[in-house]
Amino acid sequence: MIQQNERPSNEQILAAEKEAEKLGIEAGTNSAQWAIQDMWGGRVTRGEKEAARAFLDALNDGGELPEPPNLSGEWADSETPASLMESLFGDDWQDTPEFVEAQDEMCRYWEDACTEAFLSELARSAEALLQD
After folding, report:
1. Is the dihedral angle over the CA atoms 101, 103, 104, 109 positive or is it negative?
2. Angle between helix 48-61 and helix 97-131 axes, rounded to 10 deg
3. What is the C-alpha to C-alpha distance for residues 5 and 110, in angstroms, rounded to an integer?
4. For each successive 10 residues of the chain (132 residues), what is the average pLDDT?
5. How far is CA 39 from CA 35, 42, 57, 78, in A?
């Protein structure tokens, strides 16, 4: 348990970084599955291969890509920096300068992992569709 105004330990930070990455990967992968349904999956009745090819071209050429999840909280029940910190540190999370400093780091780990997982899952699905 972290006491009021106590800085999280290095071990707690390292464990939280790994957990933030894990949560980011889960969020990115889950979100990609929803995006696939709208782009070339079950909700699309034609043009699936063209959509998959367009995504891969954009990914490879630096074109416009779908937005991965973020920590803005713009959607109901979506993750925010505060909810991420609560997930990582439980009731030990406090809005103190020490935790705010750690929060920036945790958010970066989550968002980087989320983006990577989101784009990787979309690419995997698009490539699989084009293999058929």
Report:
1. positive
2. 130
3. 24
4. 60 91 97 94 87 96 94 86 89 72 91 98 97 85
5. 6, 9, 14, 21
With a CB cutoff of 8 Å and minimum separation 6, the contacts of 76 are none
Contacts of 99 (CB under 8 A, 6+ apart): 8, 85, 89, 93
Contacts of 39 (CB under 8 A, 6+ apart): 51, 52, 55, 66, 122
Q: How far apart are CA 115 and CA 96, in angstroms?
A: 28
In whole angstroms, what is the distance from residue 123 CA to residue 28 CA? Answer: 13
Task: Give 46's contacts (C-beta < 8 A, 6+ positions apart).
Answer: none
- pTM for this model (two decimals): 0.88
CB 36 within 8 A of CB 122: yes
Task: Retrieve residue 35's tokens.
Answer: 């995006």
